Each structure stands twice: as structure tokens, then as C-alpha cells.
Amino acid sequence: MSDRIPLMAGNWKMNLNHLEAIAHVQKLAFGLADKDYEAVEVAVLPPFTDLRSVQTLVDGDKLKIKYGAQDISAHDSGAYTGEVSGPMLAKLRCAYAVVGHSERRQYHDETDELCNAKVKAAFRNDLTPILCVGEGLDVRKAGNQVAHTLAQVDGGLKDVPAEQAETIVIAYEPVWAIGTGEVATPEDAQEVCGAIRGRLAELYGQEVADKVRIQYGGSVKSGNVAAIMAKPDVDGALVGGASLDADEFVKIVRFRDQ
Ligand SMILES: O=C[C@H](O)COP(=O)(O)O
Predict the structure, then answer these.
(1) 79 CA distance to ligand 1 centroid (A)?
(2) Tens digit of pLDDT for each residue in 76-105?
(3) Looking at ligand 1, which residue's alpha carbon is closest to its atom 6?
(4) How does DSSP assign 151-208, residue by residue?
(5) Which range has the worst mean pLDDT, 1-5, 36-40, 42-46, 214-218?
């Protein structure tokens, strides 16, 4: 039994404005209030425009819910129109910054090199990166999911020292399972999450590898989360669509009750 604390994170993607965000987080707080969920870390990943509202609510009501951004600039300041920097996110007391989500890789051509720069930008600003990796359907059909995903892990962690690497969160998200209702089997998830931990052990040693939290993401719901979480190398979930329904996300957070 590992002592890694599971991280259940809701990636809202481009949904919920800053007023809807407040109502949503209030519902989450209410849904989790009667339950000691100390043993599970809960985070929301709203759009940038919601972060200040979420911060105010979390601070004001002393909520245990953490929050973070869905992306981070590789640069800390300067002429980078449209980007949001690590110092800005740190000032909002974000805990996390997602890096290399497959939608960023697909629609914004984010490379492993850029993801690596973003991972370093997050660490430089005391944010924990959630580095997303995972294969598309063609790679899966060819049976190359492990090699493909490990190459993304190598790229994202290039020149990241062990003392930072041990705090990173890696989210394994098979692209074919995102938003499709196609959930990977728990065995599929374990195969790649286990391989990721193995690679971390090769890169940094077993002690570091055992500290890193590895999430699964892709059509996670209250009905499938418990079986996925039962796998030894799965330490949480990165939840998209189902995190927009507060009641459903609360059930996912309470996966041990399912
Ligand atoms: O970041 C979350 C993932 O892309 C999963 O999204 P989904 O739960 O809607 O499949």
C-alpha cells in the first residue's frame, strides 16, 4: 500500500465563467463538507478568468479544495501576448499548472520541448506541474502506447532534477479515451502508469519514483473510478467532463465509497 495521497483534479477545460465557477466550487464544498476527505486531495483547474474568484472563495471559506491553471507560459514575463505567467499564477496561490494536455499538444502544436520549458517554469514559480502524457488511437492500435508515452515523460522531464521530479504529478491520458466515453480498462491504465513509474525509477531511482503521483484521465466517472483507483500505480484522476457536474465530481472524490 503506497502512502501517496490520491489527487482528484477536475479540469473544467473551457467551461464555466467566473460566476458559474463560484457556484460550482460552493456546491463542491457543500458536497464534501460532511466527509473527512483528508486522505484525498481535491483540486479544480478552471479557466484563467475564474482563478481570482476561486481563490477568493477558497481563502474566504477556508476550503481544503486546491486549484490550479490549465496551462502556463514558459516565460516569466515579457512580450508574449495572450500568455499567463508562472509568477501571475503563483500570486493567485495556485497549487498546480497543467502542462502538455493533449488538447494543447493537438490544437496548439505543443511539443515535448515546450512542455519541458513549461514544467521548468512551473517549478521555478513553486507550482506543481501536472504533466499530461498519453497516446492517440493509431499508436494504441499499433501497440506502441508504452514507448510513445515514456518518450513524452523523458521529454517533459529533461534536465529536471530529482528534488523537483519527486513532487511532479504525471497524468496518463490516452487521447482516444478523452471525452469519448471510451474508458481505458483498469489494466490498460495500470500497464502504462506502471511503466511510467518504472521509467521514473530508471531516471531518478526507486525512492523518487515511489513518491510521484500518477493520475489516469479519460472518461473517468463515479461508476468506473473505483476500479481504476484500485490499481497500484494509479494515484488519482484527471477528470474532464464529469468534473462539470458537482455531484458527480463529489462522488468521484469519494471513490472509496463507490
Ligand atoms: O483533463 C481531462 C481529460 O482530458 C479527460 O477528459 P474527460 O474526462 O472529459 O474524458
Answers:
(1) 31
(2) 999 999 999 999 999 999 999 999 999 999
(3) 240
(4) HHHHHHTTT--HHHHTT-EEEE--GGGSSSS-PPPHHHHHHHHHHHHHHHHHHH-HHH
(5) 36-40
Distances (CA, A) of 218 to 19, 94, 179, 209: 27, 24, 7, 23
DSSP per-residue letters across 78-94: SS-TT---HHHHHHTT-
Residue 211 marked as a ligand binder: no
Question: The pTM is what?
Answer: 0.97
Q: Residue 238: its pLDDT value, please?
A: 98
CATH class of 7-257: alpha beta
Q: Which atom of ligand 1 is nearest to the CA of 178?
A: 10
Active site residue 248: no
Convert 194-210 to b/e letters by CB count within 10 Å (16 or more is b): bbbbebbeebbeeebbe
Long-range contacts of 74-82, Cβ-Cβ distance < 8 Å, separation of 24 or more: 74/114, 74/117, 74/118, 74/120, 74/121, 75/121, 76/121, 76/124, 76/125
Q: Does the beta carbon of 161 lie inside 6 Å of ligand 1? A: no
Indicate whether residue 178 lines ligand 1 (CB < 6 A): yes
**d(Cα 172, Cα 174) in Å, to the nearest integer?**
6
Three-state secondary structure call for residue 132: strand
Grouping H, G, I as helix, E, B as strand and the rest as coil, residue 101 is coil
The answer to whether the CB of 218 falls within 8 A of the CB of 183 is: yes
**What percent of the chain shows pLDDT beyond 90?**
90
DSSP code, position 14: S
| 241 carries a ligand binding annotation | yes
In this structure, which residue's CA is closest to atom 2 in ligand 1?
Answer: 240
Whether ligand 1 lies within 6 angstroms of the CB of 179 is answered as: yes
77 is in an annotated binding site: no
